Amino acid sequence: MKINQNLAALPAGYLFAEIAKRVKEYSAAHPDADILRLGIGDVTLPLVPAVVDAMKAAADEMGTLSGFHGYGPDFGYDWLIDAIIAGDYTSRGIEMGRDEVFVSDGAKSDVGNLQELFGPDAKIAVTDPVYPVYVDSNAMAGRLGAYENGQWTNLNYLPCTAENGFVPPLPEDGVDVVYLCYPNNPTGTVLTKEQLKVFVDWALAHNALIVYDAAYKAFISGPDIPRSIYEIPGAKQCAMECCSFSKTAGFTGTRCAYTVVPKELVFDGVSLNRVWGRRQATKFNGVSYVTQKAAAAVYTEAGQKQIMENIAYYRENAKVIREGLASAGMQVFGGEHAPYIWLKTPGTLSGWDFFDLLLDKAHVVGTPGEGFGPSGAGYFRLTAFNTLEKTREAVRRIVEVV
Ligand code: PLP
Fold this sequence. Notes:
Helix content: 25-40%
Bound molecules: pyridoxal-5'-phosphate
Mean pLDDT: 97
Order of helices and strands: HHEHHEHEHEEEEHEEHEEEHHHEEHEEEH
């Protein structure tokens, strides 16, 4: 058997394994250290009652002859798709057809799988630092060249740093696909409508595709930041959008998401909507009935109220981190419309140096920026998913150290 050498050549998934190793070693040497984890990229609050009730009712239905459901429709039940369209698009003045929304088991699977739509030599651009799935999934398909000195030779990195206010430059000539994630993981920053429009106009002018990952859109507050790329005129001709119930409604362990592929997306005379449907119908057998019922409950009045209470809790944590560290003189970014706070490490410390310093002196764990790409060097990510009490305590300890 000839192996997929692109897979074999992938660098090891080193970041979180290395973090776990350092924390484990430190704990073993300092068993009394009360370690606070602000590296968590997972929600921690329980599912809201509206969702749990819907799951229980659906489970009961599944146990009856008349309410049993086997394989569902390939792309999701109409009642969930209708709820998604009404709740996330019509309500914002965006028209969306039922056959443009594809329900799935996660935005990670969708953003990882959708590169199958691109030709083998399609040229890719990503913002840097970046959610690693966009990069690794294209590397697995052999599009990125060789991995040398921590970078792929055939990937267009769009640096996002304090110097450019975390607004990425436009891709270089010849790029076919650009991945944008807003609110951003890891930087927690957002783009305004005007800033996003620059990318939409670029993609339209260059016949390129934008893959827009809106997994954190529920954290956006106020009217100025777009929750969907389709708020920008022309985006239906150039963008796919991936959304998830994971961070919106605590579904990280429940698994439900959706990707929008507008009918207007046509490249080389081929409808992306048609080929994505063909791909999904072949390789994916849908999300469970119980889970889709749970997701639909997110859009009920009670569901909306309850999930927004959870989001408000995480937002408060983010505010505590942002304001606490800024008032101690640290350079702090993001965290206003996102559960992530991105900070510049003090002095010339690398992200890993700062990681070791915080672990040792504050017993706080975060994530070194280097793990998210070359432009993450000298930055550090903290997350808002711990409890308010532990978040406050972590900030207090960090402030004492820096
Ligand atoms: N997209 C981004 C930017 C993320 O940070 C994550 C999870 O952390 C995902 C997608 C994955 O979402 P899901 O749980 O729906 O697979």
